[in-house]
Design a protein that fits this description.
182 residues, three-stranded antiparallel sheet, oxidoreductase activity, Split_barrel_FMN-bd
């Protein structure tokens, strides 16, 4: 039979960093975690906007909730907040160039950003990109500021994963670069 330890455990409020953590160290450690790659799109008065996002997760089945994180002060973050809706486009392994295009800091915005990229407009007016593995159209339910990012918690109101894409692997991101999964 196990007994409780005689030592006192720290509470979350009393924990402190044991050493200074640099942004480079944190980025290097977090880069060890393999993620998928998405492009989040939203619609503004000046047209559609989009950015590459790998901070994306499912939160709840009932109701269907997801979460994305966008850099505070980003163009797409401001558009998502103002529109109250967005689309998550899940990229396939053959879409690394598309992911890189929407990750570039100097990329164009509005209609120019989507020039030459096949897409249709979803119910919210946000672009649904052609050839992606799946997409989720979402309505923002809550925003949370956390450090240098904003978390958008959203309810999924429409989605699709085309049967033609079920056997195609997703695009992945690891150690600062795109990877294809066999």
């Amino acid at each position: 039979m196990e007994t409780a330890s005689a030592t006192t455990s720290a509470t979350a409020s009393t924990l402190t960093r044991s050493r200074s953590i640099t942004q480079q160290q944190f980025r290097q450690v977090m880069g060890q975690f393999l993620t998928g790659v998405t492009i989040v799109t939203a619609r503004a008065e000046d047209g559609p906007h989009g950015t590459t996002v790998n901070s994306f997760a499912s939160l709840s089945l009932d109701p269907p909730l997801i979460m994305i994180c966008l850099r505070a002060g980003s163009r797409t973050g401001a558009v998502v907040a103002a529109a109250g809706a967005f689309t998550v486009n899940i990229l396939s392994r053959g879409q690394a160039e598309l992911g890189a295009r929407f990750a570039a800091s100097g990329r164009p915005s509005g209609h120019e950003a989507f020039a030459g990229i096949p897409h249709r407009l979803g119910a919210s007016g946000a672009p649904v990109l052609a050839g992606t593995l799946a997409h989720l159209e979402c309505r923002v339910r809550k925003t949370v500021t956390a450090g240098d990012h904003t978390l958008f918690i959203a309810e999924v109101f429409d989605l699709d994963a085309g049967p033609e894409f079920l056997d195609i692997p997703p695009l992945a991101f690891h150690q600062g670069r795109f990877l294809t999964i066999p």
